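Re: the request from the purification team.
They wanted to know what the chain is likely to look like in 3D before they choose a buffer screen. I agreed to run a prediction and write the result into the notebook, where they can find it.
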Amino acid sequence: MPRLFSKSELRRFEDCANENQTLADCWAGDQIVIVACELSDKYQYADKRNSRAIEINVMSSADKPVWRSLPLDTRQYDALKRHCSTRTIRMLGKSKVNKSLQPKPWSWYNAAAAHETFELYEEEARAKAQEAFDALSGEMYATVCVVSYDLRETMAALDLFKVKLPSSKVVFVDLIKVLEHQTRGEEVIPERLRKYTNDNIAMRNGRLDRRPGTPRGYLGMPSIRLLEVVGPAAEGHRADHKKLEKGNVALERIAKRIRNG
């Protein structure tokens, strides 16, 4: 049953709608590259994540792919013609006692997933991470759209690797707020996301919040999985907030008439 929303609720709704609009603009722009970046969930032992590995997922235009990339599933992304590629960079430690026991740097490429992995000593790993973002912020793209399920996590990962972003070319999108906007009214998270969100996102009265701490579960909470769902859907949810506001105004008028007899 429809109800009146408070001013604080309306502010939250507007905030989420703005995040969705920004993502819709970025998703539709062929001059914009979309990046999901956080500490990698691929190095886990006993549910503990290696905090010295960063994963950078990039969605770029098909005619201007970044790195070695693969087209997204055309059955699902038919009109988008976007390519996706991934880089995981892990910092290796150097032994101060026995150098023969310290891990050796190496790299490999998984062509089936367009996924490059680098395991490098600290200085080289940080240089490789900076190199990745320097490539994204070159002349090929006008804007870098950084998306995340938790922007604090993303900034912490970038800070660990001492990555400097081109501030004049970067926009940020909170994917949890986008998901909240797109599920408002239904209050049901899309089924293909639940294996990630069930352990990592709490829903209270329609509001979504990231559970604090390290992502839980074997699969973690990779932003790229959220992006694959809410990115294509963002355009179709542009007008949702205006409809909600219009309905709330109508309810206010009805309530006012009842109060005034």
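For the purification team: Residues 7-28 form the longest helix (22 residues).
Please add any questions underneath this entry.
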